[in-house]
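Support request, please re-run this one:
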Amino acid sequence: MLNLNIALAAVLATGLPFVAFSRLVLYHFYSKGAFLLDTGLLASLLWHSNLALALPTSLGGGSYLATHVSPLFWLASAISRLLPFSMPQFFAGFIGFSHALLAAAIFWLLTEGYGLRRGAGPWLATFVAIGFASSGLAIAIALYPHFETLIAAFFLLFAVAHALGHTRIAPFLFVLGLMTREDAGLHYIAILGLLVALNVAYRVPLRQQRPELIYVVVALVYVIFVMSVQHLAFPGNSAFARVYLGDPPFAHLSVRLIADRARLLVVERPYIVLPACGAFIWAWFGRNPYLVLGYVACVPWLMLNLLANNPFAGMIIGYYAFPVLIALAWPLLALLHPRPEHTFGHGTAIAGFVALLAVSYVPAALIYNPGRLHSIQAVLGSPTLAQQSATERAVAAISAARPALGRLLADNSVVAIAPNDFTRAEMLDFTGVMPDEIARSPDTVAFFADGYDAMRLRAVANSAKLLRRYTVPGTSISLASRRDLEQVPALAGLLAVSRR
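Re-run finished. Output below.
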């Protein structure tokens, strides 16, 4: 029989993160202005894409499969064709769904595993689940929206299902996690392999760990097969070599670089370091190494990133920290069925987990936030449907008017709304580099007025003496041109003259 109290609590536990993080991404796209790399790119791959997961024309074409093999994208793209949402709207829902699944895993674990099914129990589970889905770590990842949160969410759902004895649903969730990215299985192997090894140290026979060993083997076979096929299909295009090794391998490394990155991790990533320290203190005094198994499993990943060629990976910004979401939740899983020598009760386990969540909110000197998103402002001030529609119409009109605009220079945020409607030569590069010819003498520039590229494009417009300034009412888009854009048919009725 359906327990109405639990059902209502579950809706709130998953619905609130879904709405909040969806609204944050909508604000990112329509108000502040999104990045083409990677927000616009990923949104285009998940929405009405093809089997090749073709990259948008603004990024030069090609296949995303050369970078990552994500069969889950095919499923998401098929679903997108059935729903009446635009590309940014669908991507916003996708990110919201990822955080809702994080909450679902914790809520499921607490209500079924920890027995919070009566009275205020489901509402306590809701509070804790929402806290996890919107932890300091989860917010830091969402400030640069990406899809890897799903890798952690599916693993946690799998781990909960496995721990609770749901032998039919657990494999399904495990496979969904593997399908999220070709290397997801490596993270799963690290955790499950370490769990098996720790169990052996506690004299648990391998025959009693047959399910875990099967999952390890399945993940290993899948990773080897998919990576081998990817290498054969796209020789010489290794994301691992590009992001981590460099050319020549590790030539970028120095003692100072590694020391600076280690310092940055300690000082500017408190949402990683402080909960980890809390878990280790908890494990030390509780004499329970299972509590830190998730963090220990993350050590190879964190070390690899500290040595990475790519500075974003090296600084472990945003989504590069996604495996730590699993580590953060692991103590709650570890204490579900504690060994006899580990005497923590369920109340202590939940209180300890809440404490880890609390310290993840400790502010840092600097958190990577290139879009300058204020999470609370974004959630509360998400753009209306009218603003979203007006923004999409404006970008479509700008694209259609390109022959009459002369040399066009558009910022990432304009292109991110419609990545296939612009060419690479018409856009400002993600790093701020722009085509020399266009930078010297653009005829028209289009940008989000409060976007992260706005100051640069205003400077270009001033330098090029683009004296005609316009806004698109109901949107955040501004234009500057040497031409009279009010006479361009495709833009008729969209523009208002601006003095800025």
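The mean pLDDT is 92. The longest helix spans residues 4-33.
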